[in-house]
Write the structure tokens for this entry.
Amino acid sequence: MKPPKHIVSAATVVMDETNTMLLIKGPKRGWEMPGGQVEEGEPLKEAAIRETKEECGLDIEITRYCGVFQNVNHSICNHLFVGRPSGGQLKTTSEALEVGFFPIEEALKMITWGNFRQRVEYCLDEKIQPFCVSF
């Protein structure tokens, strides 16, 4: 199968009722928000919901679209959302070796891969939304 010319992905900053943030620890990038590639014919919001469920067992409700980070050199558009838990059971998977809810300041320190911390910070700042960041 020929790889896609462009990759579209969706990720969600999931905040619970105590204002703590869900992070998953992936095998390659360390701590990050749940998300992944949008399947052909799949709406962005549905992809964000599906990816969270697949990666950590949690059902979520999307509460806000935040914006997009575009990696121009790799032809990747990552659409970002904010959501909240609505059911399911938090669990580890092959894509999430560790999972948990963390206070925002602690969570931001845990995210070290590329510009993933910046993505979360932009999602938490409604004043700059919607954003469109190209790099």
